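We emphasize that the prediction below concerns an isolated chain of 114 residues; any contacts that depend on oligomerization or on bound cofactors are therefore not represented. The input was used exactly as deposited, without trimming of termini.
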Amino acid sequence: QGAPLAAMVLYLVFFGAGLAPLPWILNSEIYPLEAKSVCIGFATAANWIANFVVAATFMDLAEALSTDAVCPLAHPDGAFWLYTLVAAIGLAILIFKMPETKGLCLDEIVALFA
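Result of the prediction step, given as a token string:
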């Protein structure tokens, strides 16, 4: 009975530690000054579009991926397990692929992402 709550908590932990702050932190560092405002605008739009997709598809995913055949909408655990998996994969990619920018000047950071 605790599976939906556990799945939701795991999703929030992995998303909060991995992908949630990514657009806001990286966008302040990775773009050259002349393109920063446009690039941050695109990243913000992509973030809001992704949020909309999650919100718009949640009920269908909850029903399709539920582990309770009797009342699937009352047990959306499968949707949260899917979100947990996606967030965990994103966190792993972030850990292994994101270059360290600590102590670098803006020109050095831009060169890392060029």
